[in-house]
Write a structure and sequence with these properties.
repeat, mainly alpha, Neurobeachin, Chain: A, domain 1, WD repeat, about 240 residues, protein kinase binding, about 35% helix, single chain
Length: about 240
């Protein structure tokens, strides 16, 4: 598979799906759901220029420290952590880049994930401000908060329906702006959910991502998962 990918006989998308499968990740288990990277960092421009390297996320860094400002906090937390019982090892992040709640968070508008989310929240929807309501706002939250380290799921590259509230669920309204949570707010450069998926998939298969995807793979599936390499990369999880 690696050789095929290097020879460009399979796409970046296919390669990631196959790596996830080999790593034991599957659509049948929310706790081991396939994980895909955030690949862009420009969610505000009117047009998306895929020839400009500046629009892409730095794939060599864990999502928690893509914003340089967070690196210091994350590093200090690791260095100062001590478990009095000596059971828990030091870590940079107390949460994970992929978990069941995160999958339900993204897929809340489509069944069976809606029902699963409601079960998780003791029979009701979580408060509107914590819902997945906007792609630009989700990215901004990641940049501001080193404790939020959610990567993406494959649906961001092929499934426009998850961005629309086609079932008309009452997801509440945001506390400050009083805006009703309905369809997911898209970046300015996307004119519809289909347009977002088309451009996002194009970004995934772009020259920049093809040249840097292995850096992210090292963090999630490769040698930077544990040991000294993980410590150095600020990539140690609880």
């Amino acid at each position: 598979v690696l050789q095929k990918w290097v020879n460009r006989e399979i796409s970046n998308f296919d390669y990631l799906i196959q790596l996830n499968t080999m790593a034991g990740r599957t659509y049948n288990d929310l706790a081991q759901y396939p994980v895909f990277p955030w690949i862009l960092r420009d969610y505000t421009s009117e047009e998306l220029d895929l020839n400009n390297p500046e629009v892409f996320r730095d794939l060599s860094k864990p999502i928690g420290v893509v914003n340089e400002k967070n690196a210091k906090t994350v590093k200090e937390k690791y260095e100062n952590f001590e478990d009095p019982l000596g059971i828990i090892d030091k870590f940079h992040y107390g949460t994970h880049y992929s978990n069941a709640a995160g999958v339900m968070h993204y897929l809340i508008r489509v069944e069976p994930f809606t029902t699963l989310h409601i079960q998780l929240q003791s029979g009701r929807f979580d408060c509107a401000d914590r819902q997945f309501h906007s792609i630009p706002a989700t990215w901004q939250a990641l940049m501001d908060n080193p404790n939020d380290v959610k990567e993406l799921i494959p649906e961001f590259f092929y499934f426009p329906e998850f961005l629309e509230n086609q079932n008309g669920f009452n997801l509440g309204q945001l506390q400050i702006s009083k805006e009703v949570v309905n369809d997911v707010v898209l970046p300015k450069w996307a004119h519809s959910p289909e347009d977002f998926i088309y451009k996002h998939r194009k970004a995934l298969e772009s020259e920049y991502v093809s040249a840097h995807l292995h850096e992210w793979i090292d963090l999630i599936f490769g040698y930077k998962q544990r040991g000294p390499a993980a410590v150095e990369a600020l990539n140690v999880f609880y």
